[in-house]
Amino acid sequence: MRTQVGIIGSGPSGLLLSQLLHLEGIDSVILERRTQDYVLGRIRAGVLEQGMVDMLRKAGVAERLEKEGLVHEGLSICFGDRRQRIDLKKHTGKVVTVYGQTEVTKDLIDAREAAGGTLIYEAENVQIEDLDSDTPALTFLKDGKQQRLTCDFIAGCDGFRGVSRRYIPEDKLKIHERVYPFGWLGILSETRPVSDELIYVNHWRGFALCSMRSPTRSRYYIQCAYDEDLEEWTDDRFWDELRIRLPSAAAESIEMGPSIEKSIAPLRSFIAEPMRHRHLFLAGDAAHIVPPTGAKGLNLAASDIYYLSRALTAYYKDDSRTDHMDSYSRDCLKRIWKAERFSWWMTTMLHKFPDQSSFDRGMQLAELDYLFDSEAAQASLAENYVGLPY
Ligand code: PHB
Fold this sequence. Notes:
Largest sheet: 8 strands, mixed
Number of strands: 20
Radius of gyration: 21 Å
Helix content: 25-40%
Distance between the termini: 35 Å
Strand order of the largest sheet: 6-5-14-15-16-13-17-20
Bound molecules: P-hydroxybenzoic acid
Strand content: 25-35%
Structural class: alpha+beta
Number of helices: 13
């Protein structure tokens, strides 16, 4: 088999890249280790920046998003008995759209399939070969048969635990990392969201977040221990703990119901640089992880794909032009480091840290007090939340 761009991973990054390349007449093949049901069963992020919405529109997959996506002009931060609304629209002129990553993935798969794109599921043991040559290849096992896909370029969109990052030689790869001493326990339920905007809570028992997927589907999170046993969290226990942490008006009015999904996610900040080695380009979680507090993970994947599709399109459409390829890693990382900073800052401000010193606690209180009292601080949060420019 032969293609122009071989893509590892069928999450939003790989699918969006494949679709944007297709619209430019560039051929790609996606290899996915899992089944399509598995990919579509994952509950992930839900807040899209305007930049990402624009990319999905450009990719021709925004029709359902425009109908069903919920436009949010603000969000709330709660601490003690104080609740501060951050007016995104007023401070930035921009908004965010609540629309699940699962739905984005579904829309992209539909578009790729309608266009006759090649998506190979259950591709086992994917490996990269001849990366230093002009004809790198992806090898994999499909239905017990060994296959070889020769490519011009390879896009590693296979997530944090994917194989592609390992092909950047160790002596060239620099890793920057922070692992937080807690996780998030999240549930999805067929209930009316407690508020029509997101509520982020710093409570002395730990962080809590009220989010949603639709007017009838809620997504709630509470901070938990990183090694928490999911089995020990019945729905009743979750709702009780969530309500303790919410402002009383929300705790009293929240609609409760059975969970349809429940999971624990660790919190981590991680950056691998550079994001390119020879013919291999990393994008999304394969190269960086943010803690979910700033809602930046999916949006960073989209901005990586903006730069990668631009680089590949310039190469194929503009006489093998390589300047955008050469600056790919630098272009992505400039935005990534700032989103990492924002996500780290939101995480640090809003969580309960075990073994926090009195100085650290004082800093956290001062940070919140400043944010609640300063329009400038609120404008800064808003500017980052809606997404910095590409
Ligand atoms: C979500 O709805 O899953 C969500 C929203 C905002 C966040 C993180 C997750 O900051």
